[in-house]
Design a protein that fits this description.
The protein is an alpha+beta fold. The chain contains seven helices and twelve strands. It has a domain of about 170 residues.
């Protein structure tokens, strides 16, 4: 019999949906357990079927969670999705909001090398670090979903009932893969790394821009992910694969603004680097703030949860 515990989790990242054998269309989410201050993985999440329980990034949820069967990675949890309660609004962006966000995240690792060393030592399977340099966004043709994967999705839709299935647009595969080629600030980093980005947002960026600007989507993707975001204080959140523990992928991008380095903003820079503060008194979800100046931020991701987009 599974034992469930109540958890308070700040959601930080969501991956683009993918087909799975056991659960059909699923999303992998990661966040911070606010009672322990540690990373947790939430999988599987059938996000588009959750209706009023769909949460945003940097939003606090309360839920009942248990250890999954067949997944021994220490950060992994399986949620009772019916138990999810959304607490307040997402934490705002802007300098004040980002200080609050970064204060709640676990301290970043030095590098991918450090995370891989921790994986070998104690099984660590989630982590965050700031790359030394993003060299390039690599865009390649994706392998089409197999007939079996498409069958998983069809079977899931049949199980939803005609009315729900009709209201929920069929999941669209993004026909390209996006990867970052980068180096780390670590003497053990002797060559460039290349990790695939599975974050929800980049998939949605392709879907949106391939519709609104079909001749310019690649230029727009490169502008945002190859030039704009690396110009911020960009951190990569990485997780490993369940069956290949030394293989990591990028499951999310944490991108506070890069503070101006002058006398008036040095303390802001230090705050955004990860000053850890108590959770109490942070006023999670109570304030509103001006939208992210990059043009979208996390709130954009809920604009296109695959309803009819016309």
């Amino acid at each position: 019999m599974r034992v469930y515990e109540k958890k308070r989790i700040l959601v930080v990242v969501k991956t683009y949906p993918n087909p799975s054998h056991a659960d059909g269309e699923t999303v992998c989410c990661a966040g911070v357990d606010l009672d322990t201050g540690r990373w947790v993985r939430m999988y599987p999440i059938t996000f588009r079927q959750m209706a009023e329980r769909q949460f945003a990034k940097y939003q606090l949820i309360e839920c009942a969670a248990t250890l999954p069967r067949g997944d021994k990675r220490p950060e992994s949890l399986r949620l009772n999705q019916d138990s999810i309660q959304i607490i307040g609004e997402p934490l705002p962006s802007g300098p004040t909001g980002w200080r609050r966000r970064m204060a709640l995240l676990p301290p970043p690792s030095m590098s991918l090398e450090e995370i891989r060393a921790a994986q070998a030592a104690d099984g660590t399977s989630l982590g965050m670090f700031r790359p030394r340099q993003i060299e390039r966004l690599v865009i390649e043709k994706a392998e089409p979903w197999t007939a079996r994967q498409q069958t998983y999705l069809r079977q899931q839709r049949l199980g939803l009932g005609e009315e729900v299935a009709r209201a929920m647009q069929e999941l669209e595969q993004v026909p390209w893969t996006f990867s970052y080629r980068f180096t780390c600030s670590d003497e053990r980093c002797t060559t460039s790394h290349e990790l695939q980005i599975q974050d929800w947002e980049i998939g949605q960026s392709f879907r949106r821009w391939s519709r609104t600007a079909p001749d310019r989507w690649e230029e727009m993707i490169r502008q945002r992910y190859e030039r704009d975001l690396p110009g911020r204080d960009l951190y990569l959140v990485v997780g490993n694969l369940a069956k290949r523990h030394q293989t990591f992928v990028i499951i999310g991008l944490v991108r506070p603004p890069r503070p101006k380095v002058d006398g008036g903003n040095v303390q802001q820079s230090l705050d955004l680097m990860g000053e850890q503060r108590p959770v109490a008194g942070l006023g999670i979800g109570l304030e509103t703030e001006e939208a992210d100046t990059l043009g979208g931020d996390e709130r954009d991701e809920l604009l296109e949860l695959f309803p009819g987009e016309g």
